[in-house]
Design brief:
Keywords: ATP-binding, Nucleotide-binding. By secondary structure, the chain is α+β, with helices and mostly antiparallel strands. It contains six helices and eleven strands. It has helices at residues 22-48, 76-83, 89-108, 157-173, 215-222, 230-239; strands at 2-3, 6-10, 60-61, 65-69, 111-112, 121-123, 129-131, 138-139, 178-181, 189-191, 194-197. Residues 247-251 have low confidence and may be disordered.
Length: 251
Amino acid sequence: MRYGDVAVKTANKWSVPDNASEYTTLIYQQMNRTNEEALNHEGRIYRHLAHVEGVLKPLEISDTEIRMPYVSYRSLDRYLSANAAIVNNTQHLRWFRNAAEIIFRVHRQRVLIADIAARNFLVNADLSLQLCDFSESVIIPVEHALDEFISEDSLSMKSDIARFGSMLYEIVSGRRYEFYVTSEIEADLDDGESKTYRQWPTSEKFPDTTDVFLGDVIRKCWLRDGFCSMDDVCVALYCAHVPGEEETDAM
């Protein structure tokens, strides 16, 4: 919800249908509790990341809502959709570097983001980015090494890197590809643009990125033995360039 220059996020509340059975009532109540817990969890993540540059700074966090400044340019995916004809790869590269730096800073605070996507980066008036939405994020316990930790939901630094690669791929190619890895399934699942694998996929399962801008960077984000940290990704992006364009070119 938006109130002037303030965006307000609340937990989804499901109204119990009239004449609902006791079982149905319990299900709805459980869903509401789960949504409230998710909002409180996200509030804790925002507090944990309060001083991280590039993370959206809430105006107020309570048990019932998170109040945030409204960003007029809205999310990166919407900005790209509205301005596709004038956004070139030079601007793409600037955004990718900016986003990678933000994720790197978040990882340094021992937080796995999970839902890395263009819809969760907000575009400021100067075209810099802010990261938002930490409803699925996880704080890595201090007793675990960052590069070795895997959550109960199979989240890890490497899974964040892979999701970042998928975000880049969708922006530059216009095609969506993302995957998840969990040992809890008996066989790999293929749901069109989204895949779920029992083990980390091998290279032949990835889309061909040969003729895609930053294709090598994207592929190394996906490969199990590719980039191991967002620091590696940042270095690769700052070494990259746009073929046929000067880096100082404007959008």
